[in-house]
Specification:
Strand content: 5-15%
Helix content: 25-40%
Oligomer: single chain
Order of helices and strands: HEEEHEEHEEEHHEHEHEHHHEEEHHH
Strand order of the largest sheet: 4-1-9-10-11-12-13-14
Shape: globular
Number of helices: 13
Number of strands: 14
Structural class: alpha/beta
Radius of gyration: 22 Å
Largest sheet: 8 strands, mixed
Length: 482
Amino acid sequence: MPPSALFVLPVAALPRRSCRVPGPRRPSSLPSGRPPYLRGVVATVNGSSPSPRTPPPGHSAGSSSPRRILAIGEVLLDCFSSSPSTPFDAPTGWAVRPGGAPANVAAAAAALGASASLLTAVGDDPDGEGLVTALAAAGVDVSSVQVVGGATTRRVYVRPLEGGAGGEGVFAGLNPRGAGGYADERVELWPAEEAAVVGGGRSGGGASASSPPQPPPHFAGAVLDNVGWLATGTLCLAAPATAAAVRAAAAAVRAAGGRVLVDVNWRPLFWADWRGSPPQAVVAEYVAAAADAVKLSAEEAEWLLGISAADAVAEPGRVLAALRAIGARGGGGGTVAATSSSGVRLVLITAGAAGAAYALAPPDGGDRLASPVTGRVDGVAAAAIDTTGAGDEFVGAFLAELLAADAVATADGGTGSSGGGGGGGGYDALDDAAVVDAAVRFATTAAAMVTEGVGAMAPQPKRAAVEARMATAQVERGASDC
């Protein structure tokens, strides 16, 4: 395995206590039935108050505006080789960079000015500490990151595709897991009602008679506060503990009027130890039950739904109809709590350099027989050298643009209460086809731009750069039409 010395990231942006509360470790004091490895709980059990949760930029505690993006799932290290023949266990020849789809999404949204948080878990190791530091430096709220003692921060090894072009890569393998498994497989979302137990109920500490207990940040009430969009993938479904946290978070966000976007992001490497139902069925049922918006590549549409890649791009309404049909049959197996949502409203189909397509169902409560609004966005010319983070950039940019639309609606006198969510009768970006189309165009441009750098996070563009690129492209199109 390549040495940790190859991992060079900023180190000054975040004190360790941001993801680890100091204090004596007494696992026997933890509430019955709860694992002892989450350090965030230690101080509250032993009578100390945890560090206060710092709201992300633009968000005030207790405020309903602006809403934020919460990404949940894996954070890891992407290890890249420049040669398709580099041995997997070679000590050199690998460049190590921060990654993991949910982490990339949160960083992309933050770079574009959105308020973005990440719920994930890292190992108690240098790789985990470096990742949290890098995310904080990128503007992501990391107050909900969990440190799992004895677990390993995952590394994924990627080689260039033999004979490929445009920065395409293939997954070569993973670093060995420790005795505690991979940390990202052990994310937890503790129910809000347990806050009083851990926050001072059992040991009598952490709160006075005049002040309520302060739960650590991985309790549902703290993690899900003010979430307009929850973004997640499906790799987490292969790990029971993290899958339970993601399913619970999705149900809670929707019940509170927020929205959920699921990126299919099919990676068979993460399902190697899976012994349950076929992964296609697990993913399809979860997506249909949990998501308001689904992002998938044209090839993933073929894998998941049997719709050819070409047809998925040409007829995105077929993909939307297939997912809604699965949802209508009760997909999800009861694992995602029912909400007032009527199912998948939007599908986003990416086709690499060929651009993207989408299909948007009628608003909730509207004409259920009406045809969906569909659209196609051409690809943006780019000197691509690494496509690793393109899909994640697309998701982060799309959600950032929806939140920006919500902010405009709020400023113009709309309630804007859900940042794109459908609760409370407020503004809902998914009810505005023009906003969705504009967000797809913005996301397509941002995704193209990120391929012009190396790695998923380092080349993520700022909003001004994306808007300038779009303006230049519009001028060039106008000139070519003359």
